[in-house]
Amino acid sequence: MIEFRVVIVGPEESKWKNLKQVENAKELITQIITNTDGNFPFSKEQYTFDELVIISGACPKGGVDIWTEECSYENDIVTEICPPEINSWNDEKKKGILGYPIVKIGYRTRNLRMAKKGNLGYCIVPHDPTEYCKHCKKYGHPSNGGCWTILKMRDMRKEGLIIEV
After folding, report:
1. How far is CA 53 from CA 21, 126, 131, 132, 136, in A?
2. Which of 25, 51, 152, 154 is deepest in the core (most CB within 10 A)?
3. CATH number of domain containing 25
């Protein structure tokens, strides 16, 4: 069986200022998740697979990650949830009781793991011409770890799309 793994990421809920954009993001997530013929929205390629697996990050601050989980469950799609262990970009490293190193995974490592697992990635962001994304190095949407994740996927020669709604 061929699994096709689609990463869906984007900003936390507080970065979405417009209800219409939230509705558009949820509609796009539904279009991606309910795809069964391998012809994904905005994708340059056609993919062939037996089972679709959605990968998302379980952001504790809500937003695209949670909307993706909800839509996946509503449509009975296999979903791999990759939550961070701590609410920090960087990992937390310390020694345990017996002196062995313990690492709690932050957003950066979690996002890199999702990028490695996925075949195709989408970052869905709210369009805002006044916001500057430090990862994309342009105005048009707020900075968020989703853009960083998609850029890492591109570095791995995978198709990754950043879509403003």
Report:
1. 25, 25, 32, 31, 27
2. 25
3. 3.40.50
